[in-house]
Amino acid sequence: MYLKEHTISTQHAQQMSKITNMIREDIQESGVKEGTVLVFSPHTTAGFTINENADPDVVHDMLLGFDKVFPTEQPYYRHMEGNSHAHMKTSLVGPSQTLIIHKGEIIFGIWQDLYFCEFDGPRNRKFYVKIVEG
Prior knowledge:
Secondary thiamine-phosphate synthase enzyme YjbQ, UPF0047_YjbQ-like, elongated, 3-stranded antiparallel beta sheet, 39% strand
């Protein structure tokens, strides 16, 4: 088994950062050819999603859509830190993703990549990668 902690610095209040290549490097370092990868964020205002990598407008539109559903400021939010919207967005995308490794590579659709989703930045974040053979 392989476990690695990564750090990522986000630059904006909300952003989606492609991290697929980081995970590919971890797979290569682990030597695992067949198995699974679990990526996990220990934060309640940041998570992961798998989505389109070809058109950057998709990321823009996703963040815009998240804001429409979960606006940053609402008079009825009660959480004192003022980031209830970020907690809701993270609950929607989730704190983790599981990927399949086959022949030493991640199985993705042609247009897919893995994104770290920041909803309460900018911040210095960490996330974990667990690779299991089998």
